[in-house]
Amino acid sequence: MNDLILQLVAGYGAFAIFAATYLSCLAIPMPSSLMMLAGGAFAAAGDLALWSTAGAALSGAILGDQTGFHIGRFGGSRLTDKISRNPARAALINRARATVDRHGGVGVFFSTWLVAPLGPWVNLIAGATGLHWVRFTLWDTAGEMIWVVVYVGLGYTFTNQIETLAGLLGNSAGFLAAGVLTIGLGLLLRDALRRAKNKARAQDGTDEPPDH
User: Fold this and answer.
1) What are phi and psi of 25, to 5 degrees?
2) What sign does the CA torsion over 43, 48, 52, 54 have?
3) Burial profile 82-92: b = 16 or more Cβ within 10 angstroms, e = fewer
4) What is the pTM (predicted TM-score) of this model?
5) Is 65 exposed, middle or buried (0-12, 13-18, 19+ CB in 10 A)?
6) What is the pLDDT of residue 116?
7) How far apart are CA 105 and CA 114, in angstroms?
């Protein structure tokens, strides 16, 4: 395990975990999952209290998501337009918008733990597209509870295999995120082809001579 992460968790305890989960939910690269695993391991050893560790992780995650949501609510249009100038992120922003439009809170729920790397973008779009705050908060809190329980619980249970767990879970998250992006791009392409096909049919119908 990274020595710096161990030192941070050992030295600052729950505060370090709170800061890591908060910043990671704002798309700032932080080893939040690894720090939760470490926090669980320290709790198992009796160096940290389990409930304060899990509570700090959950509080940081929820507060980070709320920050992203409100950034989207009050400045989302300008920010998403700026982000969309990058072609690599434009499809991601469009898919996040479509996910929130179609699935609302359910999309927020899964983005917090199943495809956590996509979570910050979904929070931003949820705010920008006007998803109701209560609905967002309920689904977001439920999802973050799963994320925290899984990582802190695994660290607490498998204290001696933290590095192996971190590698496996990190790879799984990456594969899931890539899978979601691939599916999203495929759906966008399918919709574009369908619209083009419908437009072509409409034009063909317009161009046909009237029957006598």
Assistant:
1) -75, -5
2) negative
3) eeeeeeeeeeb
4) 0.72
5) buried
6) 79
7) 14
